[in-house]
Amino acid sequence: MWKEDGVIEPVLSGAAQKVSDSEVRKIVLSYLVHNCFKETAETFIACSGMKRTADCSVDIDKRKPIYNHVLEGNVLKAVELTNLLAVDLLPTNKDVHFELLTLHFVELVRAKDCAGALELAQKELRDFSEQEHYREKLQDCMALLAYEEPETSPMFSLLSMDHRQSVADALNCAILAHANLPSYTSMERLLQHTTVVRQYLNQELGKDGPPVFTLKAYLKG
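Structure tokens predicted for CTLH domain-containing protein:
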């Protein structure tokens, strides 16, 4: 049964288990390490009294510059550092490689280097156009060249910080997966699990079950 205080009573099997403070701290730390918040992670460890089981700063020190270069639109430097860290990552991860190349294209357009953007399209992006999976985004990128002020075009989102952030996150996840580390944080997996469980309970219990979980609604509450 779903109760007003948000606790699920044992309608399936077994009673709900309380999450310990130690487990919560581990979830928070995994988020900080995943997203390269080195100083914050170190402060969190010190303030929470957690034991440092391993020095994670080396991993962060290698990933953070790559992440920041993408956020700054310096794609070539990010690619260079990625190739030094994981030499076979981009050749084997076509989706991430495509995202980096198209971001570089966009940054060239932003800098009014249309000749450079066209050269990149001819040398690096032409092969992607043969696959439908990439074609639509390629067409949107190429359409930017038709506008004197691409920031005001219908494809303006390609020049947004959100787009850079999305590419940076995708590359970061790929680097972690390449190193056989979790590509998603415990917090993300927990939210995914919560969403699925609440959806299942809502379908099974109807009006006696909890509402479908959405992060936006939860944060407002």
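Confidence is low (pLDDT under 50) at residues 1-14.
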